[in-house]
């Protein structure tokens, strides 16, 4: 059985212009009470053994190593569990990564975004490209065999040669895993308020195809629309999400799932801490997927992955195949690179095949 634990760390030193996550730059004074609240939530939850743990944010690497590892120590883990910590490159030191390694962290995820200074500036990122190289070097020296580099394409001022340069530098670092996301405009962000910086859809499509060819040429296989990995380095925690596995979210704004039931915690760290300290539930809301809805969601998640979906789960499958959006893989069909650009168009044509039990 797989079971994941996600721990949300909502603290950042600065906020990127595109970010709409539940993060704050003015709450560093809450770090220790927040850590204590997370540890208490875990202790009182009586969770099963976790096969994967993911510290996301925010910037988890802003926490003192002892504080983050204190949270990790409360989580019962299965042998060989994957434990990932997201890190901003400018927060990484050899001492920090050495402490992570000694404390049970097995995987790192670095927010690189771009390796071109003016593109980083256009995204509102604080680090310099050299910090990414230094962070990777520190990770390798600390003994980490698995790490991810996060990229964002389509930023203001990014040219074709800038994106190719970023990919070339990233590939030169021999990462086991790369995630590359199209820049999205989220309401309420500085990016949303500046239409001149909004990405062009055709440019995003071209950037994605360049990423696909470059990363696959470097030995990184696509296993989900925005994720590429060397064999054996796929993110097990993310695979759990895409396979509708059960997971528990810890901390403010964290989401949980069990057998079609979803719930989420209050958004702000202040309120989360207050509720935990008062012995009250931090849950803000919940929803229950019915069995047919869960079956359809399973297909919409699976079609994003290299495993694909049964051919009889797709309406107009022959039409989509003839147009190069799908290709056969055994009894399934999977998205081609062009198909991944139009994944939503394929997803709306999904149906639960006859004879498949609802919710399976």
Report on the architecture of this protein.
- With 360 residues, this protein is an alpha/beta fold.
- The protein has two domains: 3-240, TIM Barrel (Alpha-Beta Barrel), CATH 3.20.20; 291-347, no CATH class.
- It is 36% helix and 23% strand.
- The chain has helices spanning 31-45, 65-73, 94-103, 117-123, 129-142, 160-172, 201-217, 236-242, 269-277, 291-302, 317-322, 337-341, 343-347, and strands at residues 3-9, 50-57, 77-87, 107-113, 146-153, 177-182, 221-224, 227-229, 246-250, 255-258, 261-265, 283-288, 309-310, 326-329, 332-335.
- It is globular and about 60 Å long.
- The chain starts with a strand and ends in a 13-residue tail after the last helix.
- The model has no long low-confidence stretch (mean pLDDT 96).
* Span of the ends, CA to CA: 16 Å
Q: What structural category characterises the helix and strand content?
A: alpha/beta
* Whole-number mean pLDDT: 96
Number of helices: 13
Poorly predicted ranges: none
Question: What is the name of the CATH architecture of the largest domain?
Answer: Alpha-Beta Barrel
The total of beta strands comes to 15
Strand adjacency order, main sheet: 7-8-6-5-4-3-2-1-9
> How does the overall form come out from the CA principal axes?
globular
CATH classification, class level of the largest domain: Alpha Beta
Q: What proportion of the residues is helical, as a percent range?
A: 25-40%
Beta-strand portion reads: 15-25%
CATH superfamily of the largest domain: Aldolase class I
- Characterize the biggest β-sheet: 9 strands, mixed
What Rg, in angstroms, do the CA atoms define?
21 Å
Total of domains: 2
The CATH topology name of the largest domain reads TIM Barrel
